[in-house]
């Protein structure tokens, strides 16, 4: 599933540059993750880099957008083909 940033976000700016798919951007109040671009770093890293660097642990899997590892890999491949 793609990831989401919760209201606990402190806008520290560390997650955005870590995202290899440029899925993280500043929303109206806090950072947000575009589920169409988020692959949980599948294809790039073993673990989601935004979750690794977040100092307040406000990035979680979004239960509203479940995706399997195969689906995340397919999304990664589609994103790479579009570059």
Automatic annotation (TrEMBL):
Name of protein: YfhL family 4Fe-4S dicluster ferredoxin
Domain 4Fe-4S ferredoxin-type: 1-29, 31-64
Gene3D superfamilies linked: 3.30.70.20
Pfam families: Fer4_7 (PF12838)
Alphabetized PROSITE patterns for the sequence: 4FE4S_FER_1 (PS00198), 4FE4S_FER_2 (PS51379)
Keywords: 4Fe-4S, Iron, Iron-sulfur, Metal-binding
Organism the protein comes from: Wohlfahrtiimonas larvae
Keyword Cell membrane: no
NCBIfam families per record: di_4Fe-4S_YfhL
Listed transmembrane segments: none
């Amino acid at each position: 599933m793609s990831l989401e940033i919760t209201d606990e976000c402190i806008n520290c700016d560390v997650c955005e540059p870590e995202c290899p798919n440029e899925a993280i951007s500043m929303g109206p109040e806090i950072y947000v993750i575009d589920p169409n671009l988020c692959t949980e770093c599948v294809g790039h890293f073993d673990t989601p880099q935004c979750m690794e660097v977040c100092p307040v642990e406000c990035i979680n899997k979004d239960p509203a957008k479940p995706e399997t590892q195969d689906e995340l890999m397919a999304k990664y491949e589609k994103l790479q083909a579009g570059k």
